[in-house]
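Query structure, 340 tokens:
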């Protein structure tokens, strides 16, 4: 594959409908790959990968969102797999939002198989199986029936009742990823699609009601392009569609390698991004520090939508931390794992 900066491809990801995604999301989607597609399980330069991420939003608007993500994945080698290898892993997501303290806990297991077409082209298929729990707390909610005509009276009965304040549901997702890379450079690109909630699990808190969680589709492209021996350019984009809702993030920036000596690798990265939806949403500043097998990313959303009046332009800080372990492998095993 001839590597070029694929700006037209990324722009095409976002020529679509409108509004806001319903599932949890991360600005640094490229640093939380298992939340984007199960086909990204095991797609990294190393053998084991640990990732933690935390995000906060709307604290100044008195309607806070808090989201956490933790994941682990690794490669599995076996001679019987021929020109390929497996990826296995798991992820834990937690999200809480609003006055109702609406909470989501997800536990997911993922597996993938990567077929090595040649050292510079790999295709991966992935499957995710998991379960989610949603719950809420009525204590923080106010209802119109509790207003007596002059003021709000919390002692007045709300007249609302629910059969349950929490439920558990099964979930699964599928994805496919294509990676092209230069084996003699840092240049590479991942392009893929994924689908979640295809069985549309019921999300109703009333056991007599039906409120289906609509399927979510993800389209993404993440590219790193080596411009100079010490300088890289990156470009990434993610589009997520769920029913009539749409959210997209597109970003670009540079990475400078301060030290490339083995065991002392050090690089700094900085870039800008923009979140797209019906209301415009946010401009994003993002920086990262890379040291050996550690990566620390910090980003901040600056609200630019009409909601900025309530938020005072404050959006959401996000922090990600990644650690990769590399094992020493026999030469025949090493040759089937050419991921840069």
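Result returned for the query:
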């Amino acid at each position: 594959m001839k590597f070029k900066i694929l700006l037209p491809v990324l722009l095409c990801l976002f020529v679509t409908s409108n509004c806001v995604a319903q599932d949890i999301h991360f600005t640094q989607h490229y640093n939380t790959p298992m939340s984007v597609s199960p086909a990204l399980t095991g797609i990294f330069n190393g053998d084991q990968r640990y990732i933690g991420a935390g995000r906060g939003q709307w604290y100044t608007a008195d309607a806070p969102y808090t989201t956490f993500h933790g994941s682990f994945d690794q490669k599995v080698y076996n001679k019987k797999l021929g020109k390929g290898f497996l990826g296995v892993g798991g992820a834990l997501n937690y999200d809480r939002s609003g006055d109702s303290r609406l909470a989501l806990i997800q536990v997911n297991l993922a597996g993938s198989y990567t077929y090595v077409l040649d050292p510079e082209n790999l295709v991966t298929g992935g499957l995710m199986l998991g379960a989610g729990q949603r719950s809420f707390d009525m204590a923080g909610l106010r209802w119109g029936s509790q207003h007596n005509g002059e003021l709000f009276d919390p002692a007045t009965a709300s007249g609302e009742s629910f059969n349950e304040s929490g439920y558990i549901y099964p979930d699964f997702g599928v994805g496919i990823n294509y990676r092209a890379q230069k084996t003699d450079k840092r240049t590479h690109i991942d392009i893929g699609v994924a689908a979640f909630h295809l069985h549309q699990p019921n999300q109703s808190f009333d056991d007599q009601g039906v409120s289906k969680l609509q399927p979510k589709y993800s389209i993404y492209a993440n590219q790193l392009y080596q411009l100079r021996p010490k300088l890289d350019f990156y470009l990434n984009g993610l589009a997520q569609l769920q029913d009539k809702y749409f959210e997209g993030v597109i970003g670009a920036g540079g990475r400078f390698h301060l030290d490339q000596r083995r065991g002392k690798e050090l690089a700094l990265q900085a870039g800008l991004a923009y979140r797209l939806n019906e209301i415009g949403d946010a401009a994003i500043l993002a920086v990262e520090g890379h040291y050996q097998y550690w990566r620390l990313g910090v980003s901040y959303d600056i609200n630019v939508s009409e909601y900025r009046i309530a938020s005072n332009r404050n959006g959401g800080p996000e922090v990600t931390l990644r650690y990769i372990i590399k094992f020493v492998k026999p030469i025949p095993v090493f040759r089937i794992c050419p991921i840069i």
